[in-house]
Design brief:
434 Repressor (Amino-terminal Domain); 15 helices; 0% strand; mainly alpha
């Protein structure tokens, strides 16, 4: 799948590595052997767990991806975009097209492995992901980004902040019959009160908010804005 440099300019390193392994139909360990990088080290890149990588490792990854060392370092710092859970995303791609058993036969992936992907128990290796992408005709970059985002979510990592993009949007373009000027004035701020310890329910809600796809967070904020205007 040919892509322009401009299209790839802001792809995080982990997504680029995973996509390249998909293109070569190799697992992370197999691709690591091909580029002479330790399998554990490369897997840490993919999982966003690398803190102080060796320069030699970065040079080898850069050589494999045809990127200068400075570009490899820059892409390492790019956070992934928030994505939906992989199982839900995959189920949406299959809907109305393939049952799990049919996809298993078409890809050669065991039904139990597909079940684990769909239920969120495991994530596919690049070579397995490529088999699914070929059958469902999925974009390799998008699929790689979804898988990497799920790795990051599992480890409690951070995602690219989508709030600034929301603030820059004209609310009148997306909220029904409202504009930013129509929103009610903000009431005076009450004196600070010591907050009670967070309950398990609050922790759960915060976790759900953080796991939402950026589009889901945008929709929730717009809905709340609409409630304010009605009140």
């Amino acid at each position: 799948m040919a892509r322009s440099n401009s299209a790839d300019a802001n792809i995080p390193l982990a997504v680029l590595v995973f996509r390249t392994a998909m293109e070569k139909r190799k697992s992370i360990s197999e691709y690591a052997g091909e580029i002479d990088v330790g399998a554990i080290s490369l897997r840490q890149f993919v999982h966003y767990k690398t803190q102080r990588p060796r320069t030699r490792t970065l040079e080898l990854i850069g050589a494999a991806l045809k990127l200068p060392l400075e570009e490899v370092r820059r892409r390492m710092e790019l956070p992934p975009a928030g994505m939906p859970p992989f199982g839900e995303w995959l189920a949406a791609q299959m809907e109305g097209r393939y049952s799990r058993s049919a996809l298993s036969k078409a890809t050669g992936i065991s039904d139990s492995a597909l079940k684990n992907y769909i239920t969120g128990k495991t994530l596919p290796e690049p070579n397995q992901a490529r088999k699914i992408a070929d059958v469902l005709d999925l974009d390799l970059t998008e699929m790689s980004a979804v898988i990497i985002a799920n790795y990051v979510a599992q480890s409690g990592g951070e995602f690219a902040d989508d709030d600034e993009e929301l603030e820059e949007e004209d609310v009148s373009d997306v909220a029904v019959g409202t504009s930013a000027a129509a929103l009610p004035p903000v009431p005076p701020v009450a004196p600070p009160v010591a907050a009670p310890p967070a309950s398990n329910e609050e922790d759960r809600l915060i976790g759900l908010w953080r796991s939402l796809h950026p589009q889901g967070r945008r929709a929730a904020m717009l809905y709340m804005a609409g409630l304010l205007t009605e009140g």
